[in-house]
Structures are given as C-alpha cells and as structure tokens.
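Section 3.1: Structural characterization of target chains.
Under the original work plan, the team committed to producing a structural model for every single-chain target entering the pipeline before any wet-lab resources were allocated. The record below documents one such target. The sequence was received from the expression subgroup and is listed exactly as submitted; it comprises 74 residues.
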Amino acid sequence: MDFPYNRVEGTTNTEDHKVFVDLHVFSEFIPVDDAALTEVIQQWLLDNVPEVLSTTAERREQTFPVTQLPPLPG
C-alpha cells in the first residue's frame, strides 16, 4: 500500500532545531492540489514563525508491506 505525502522542513536560527510538517492529502472525489497547499504551508511558516529562516519541501513515498492472510480453514 502506498501513502505518498509531502514533507516541509523549516530551517531555524538554531542549528539543533528544525520544523517538520508532513502533509497527507486524501480526497477520493474532490481534487486537491497538494503541491500548491505545500507552497502555502511553506510561506505561512516563513511569515508566521520568526525562528524559521528557510524552508524546503519534498515528495515522499511511504510504502507499507501488505502481508497476505492465510487461507481460511476449509
């Protein structure tokens, strides 16, 4: 099973601290532009969190292995 998501990483003015936002969008019938939403989140972090100096974003594919169930006793 695949569960793709976007990760926004904010670099702060402190070397040891970073901000991570993972954006999982699931919409079965309504199209959602998750790339545009990611850009809005990046800009919001820059505008509203004084410690955040810059942001980067990347698309990640999170895959979970699916184990087959044994057959039911017959």
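The two ends are 28 Å apart (CA to CA).
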